[in-house]
Amino acid sequence: MSAFPKLTAEEVAEYIPNGALVACGGFTAAGCPKVIPLALAKRAERLHADGKPFRIKLLTGASTNDAVDGALGRARAIAFRAPYQADRDLRKCINDDDVDYVDDHLSRYARLLRQVFFGDIDVAIIEVSHYTDDGELALTTAVGSAPVFCQSAKHILLEHNAYHERISGFHDLYDVEENSVPVPLRALSDHIGTKTLRVDPKKILGVVETHLPDGIEAFKPCTSVHEAIAGHVVDFLLREIRRGVLSSASLTMELGTGNMTNAVLRHIGACEEMLNFSVHGEVLQDGILELLTQGRIEFAVGSSLTVTDPWLQTIYGRADFYKERLLLRPSEITNHPEVIQRLNLAALNAALEADIFGNVNSTHVAGTSVMNGIGGASDFAHNAALSVFMLPSTAKDGKISSMVPFCSHIDLTDHDVDVIVTEQGLADLRGKSPEQRALCVIENCAHPDYQPLLHAYLQRAKSGHIRHDLTAAFAFYDAYAKTGDMRNARL
C-alpha cells in the first residue's frame, strides 16, 4: 500500500490554482508527463467557457510533448514559458504576444531556478518508472531539470508510468549545488552520481498511474540537401583527423537533433576511415542508437533518450547491453561549460541563417518570430573545441537566402562559430579576418543566385574592421517583405 494517495489526472488538476508556477519534467517529448497536463488543459477550457480566468506559468526541461505545450497552448492556459519550446501551437501564442517567453542558455537554467529568478515553483509534475514511500524516485527516459525542480518545488505530483519500468539503471544523477566542487567527470562512462532521485516525501501530493509510450515520431526522410551537407561535414572531419587537430582515438561529438544529424550519422557509419567515436550531448536519437548498437559509437551520454518506440523496445529488451554504453544525466551536467571544455569535443548543430561574417541565428525568423529557442547550441558552440553549424543555403524554393549580409537576430557571434556548412560547401572561418570570413562564406556556402548580391554588399561597405553598410544591411529582408523573394534585393 503506497503512502501517497492514488489520484486521477482530473483530481490532480484541481490542485493547481490559477497563476501557479508549474514545472514539468522531461526533456523533449521524452520523459514528459502525459495525462496531468491534458487534464489541466481541459480544466482551463471549462473555466474559460464559464468566463473565469485560468493560466499557469510553465517551466520545463526543454521542449515537451503535445500534452504539455500543445494542449496547454491551444487552451490558452499558459501565461509564461521558459526555457525552450518547439510546439507549433505554443509558438503561435508566443509570436501573437499571448505568452511571455524567456529563451535562455540551458547551462545556467538550473542556477536561475535555484536563485528563484522565475519565482517559487508551486508544483512539479514528474514522470517516474518507480518510487518508494520514503521519496526515492526513478525517472524515465529523460532527466533534464527534474532534480532541481523537485528540490525547489513546494509540492510534487508523480505520474507513475509502468510502460518504462525497464529504464531503471540508465541514470547518473549528480547534484552540482550539493557537491560544490568541480564536476568529477574524466571519462564519459564515469558514474559520478546516483541512479535515483531522493526527494522529501512530504512534498508528494499524490500519484497518477499511466502506461503510455513517449510517442516520439521518426524524422522525415533526409533530402539530397541534407545528404550533401553531411558529405561535406564528414570530409571535413576526416581532414581534421589527418591533420591531427581531432584525435581519431578519442573523438567525442555533440550532435543536435533532426534530419541533418541523421544524415551526418549515416555518412559517418558508411565511412570506413572514420574510427569509432563517443557522443556527449543533450538528445540521444535513433541514428545515435543505431551506431551505438553497431559499435561505431563507443559510449553515449545525453539528457534524454528521444527515440522512436521500436528503438525503445530494443533498448529495454537488451537493457544490460545498453546500460554499459549509455547514460542519462541532468542537463546542467551535459551542458556544463567546464565539462564541455574538458571533453574537447566537436559540436555539430543546425541554424536558421548565418551572415557572411560568421554570426549565426538559430531562433528567430526575420529577427522577430521565434521558432524554438537557443537550447544548448550556445553552450556547446562557446565551449567546444570545434564548433560547426549546418544549414541549407536557401529556403522557400530559393526565395530566401540562408546566407545574408547581417543576421536579423544573432544567437551565436562569429567568435563562437568555427565552421559553416551548406550543401554548396564548407567555410572554415578559423584564423580569418572579417573580410576573409566574408569572402569564404560567399564563395563556399552561399547559393549561386545570391553570390553576386553578397559580393555587391561587401563592396558597398569599403571601410572598417567589419565592413557593414547599415543602410543596406537588411536589404535581403526588405526585398522579401516587399516582393516575396530575396533575390530582388537592390544593393
What would you note in describing this structure?
By secondary structure, the chain is α/β, with parallel strands linked by helices. It folds into two domains: 9-210, Glutaconate Coenzyme A-transferase (3-Layer(aba) Sandwich), CATH 3.40.1080; 224-275 and 345-488, Acetyl-CoA hydrolase/transferase C-terminal domain (Glutaconate Coenzyme A-transferase, 3-Layer(aba) Sandwich). Helix content is 32%, strand content 20%. Strands 1, 2, 3, 4, 5, 6, 7, 8 and 9 form a nine-stranded mixed beta sheet that branches. It has an eight-stranded mixed beta sheet with strand order 15-13-11-10-16-21-25-26. Helix 3 (66-74) crosses helix 4 (88-95), helix 9 runs parallel beside helix 10 and helix 14 crosses helix 15. The longest helix has 20 residues, at 224-243. It is globular, with a radius of gyration of 23 Å. The protein starts with 8 loop residues before the first helix and ends in an 8-residue tail after the last helix. 51% of the residues are buried.
Give me the secondary-structure topology.
Layout: H1 9-13, E1 21-24, H2 36-49, E2 56-60, H3 66-74, E3 78-82, H4 88-95, E4 100-101, H5 109-114, E5 123-131, E6 136-139, H6 146-152, E7 155-161, H7 176-179, E8 197-198, E9 204-210, H8 224-243, E10 252-255, H9 259-270, E11 277-280, E12 283-284, H10 286-294, E13 297-302, E14 304-305, H11 309-317, H12 319-323, E15 326-328, H13 331-334, H14 337-343, E16 346-350, E17 353-355, E18 360-361, E19 364-365, E20 369-370, H15 377-383, E21 386-390, E22 394-395, E23 400-401, E24 403-404, E25 419-422, E26 425-428, H16 434-444, H17 451-460, H18 475-483
Parallel strand pairs: 1-2, 1-5, 2-3, 3-4, 5-7, 7-9, 10-11, 10-16, 11-13, 12-14, 13-15, 16-21, 17-24, 21-25
Antiparallel strand pairs: 5-6, 6-8, 17-18, 19-20, 22-23, 25-26
